[in-house]
Amino acid sequence: MSDSIKAVDWVDDALVLLDQTLIPLEEQYRSYTDVDAIIDAIKRLVVRGAPAIGVAGAFGVVIAMDEAKRNGSDAEALERRIDEIRDARPTAVNLAWAVERVCRFVPQGREAVLAEAKRVAEEDRASGDEMGRIGADWLIERLGKRPLTLLTHCNTGSLATTSIGTALGVIREMHNRGAIKEVYADETRPLLQGSRLTAWELKKSGIPYRIQPDGAAALAILTGRIDAALIGADRIAKNGDSANKIGSLAVALACHEAGIPFLVVAPESTVDRSKASGDEIHIEIRSDEELTHFRGIQVAPLDAKTFNPAFDVTPAKYISAVITEKRAYEIAKGETL
């Protein structure tokens, strides 16, 4: 199923994105050949999810080189445009990581950069399979091979990656092993990535699910409905502190109180070992309109002030393990990344 979902692709010298702002009502792919449009797509969440943003940014460097050639821009102007792509969303480390990785090949020319961007995408696809296997092994070893009810927050599947996903990839692997009873998908306010995107992917995969409001997650966990919770991450500090979609911390606290596993699933490229702890992770603040309006319809008083952080940081002490394509880091036991 994941092969039929391509959140990010490269076709006919253009970056092609599945417009996630339209799902589940429409499945529309858009082609991008200029830098401003790519930056807008990243900021508006046409493409989202740390790994997918990273791949989009890598291909975006190729677009920047093409644009510079068309405009006759010099190397300094090209560097500024690449910086704009890298900085389009500051919390997700994968974007800067991927852009900087392919930039090393700029002196070798466009085709070298394109080849490296394709390698970034291929490595992401391979890492999804490994995270799925490692995460499923971890859960089954600790909870037994039985149908589990799992909770997930935001969207961490094929729409957020170029693979089967991170946390949702583990869920898919568990489903393939006959070890899923049901998945509780938090709706994920304010943009509903859970009810719009995760539910859409679960339905396509044939995995039993139900949607719940974010505010119901703690009740579901503390009343024994949930066996474990899995989330993705946009940046993970060296000590295991993890930044993810706002609301993740509340899920972690509830899991800690209930004594059930709380897993963070993300590729090694999401681990930022230059950050000692979550205190050093910059949290993106989104616009007021995301809370005061929905699809252009006003749902709050005019000029209402908001507090709209895109992410929160879950301290390592509340994380049972961080699953990457390399291994399971037992964060709750004091391991660091």
**Which fold does the CATH topology of the largest domain refer to?**
Rossmann fold
- Which parts are unreliable, with pLDDT below 50 for 5 consecutive residues or more? none
What is the arithmetic mean of pLDDT? 96
CATH superfamily of the largest domain: Translation initiation factor eif-2b, domain 2
The proportion of residues in beta strands is 15-25%
Structural class category: alpha/beta
- How many separate domains? 2
Largest sheet: 7 strands, mixed
The CATH class of the largest domain is identified as: Alpha Beta
Number of helices: 10
Strand order of the largest sheet: 6-5-4-7-10-15-16
Please provide the count of β strands. 16
Compute the CA-based radius of gyration: 19 Å
Judging by the overall fold, what is the CATH architecture of the largest domain? 3-Layer(aba) Sandwich
Shape by Cα distribution: globular
Description of the molecule:
Strand 4, helix 6 and strand 5 form a beta-alpha-beta unit. This protein folds into two domains: 122 residues, translation initiation factor eif-2b, domain 1 (Four Helix Bundle (Hemerythrin (Met), subunit A)); 206 residues, Rossmann fold, CATH 3.40.50. The two termini are 32 Å apart. The protein is globular. It is α/β, with parallel strands linked by helices. It is built from ten helices and 16 strands. A seven-stranded mixed sheet has the order 6-5-4-7-10-15-16.
Q: Which structural traits does this protein have?
A:
337 residues; alpha/beta; Four Helix Bundle (Hemerythrin (Met), subunit A); Rossmann fold; seven-stranded mixed beta sheet; four-stranded mixed beta sheet; 10 helices; 39% helix; 18% strand; globular; IF_2B-like_C; Initiation_fac_2B_a/b/d; NagB/RpiA_transferase-like; isomerase; S-methyl-5-thioribose-1-phosphate isomerase activity
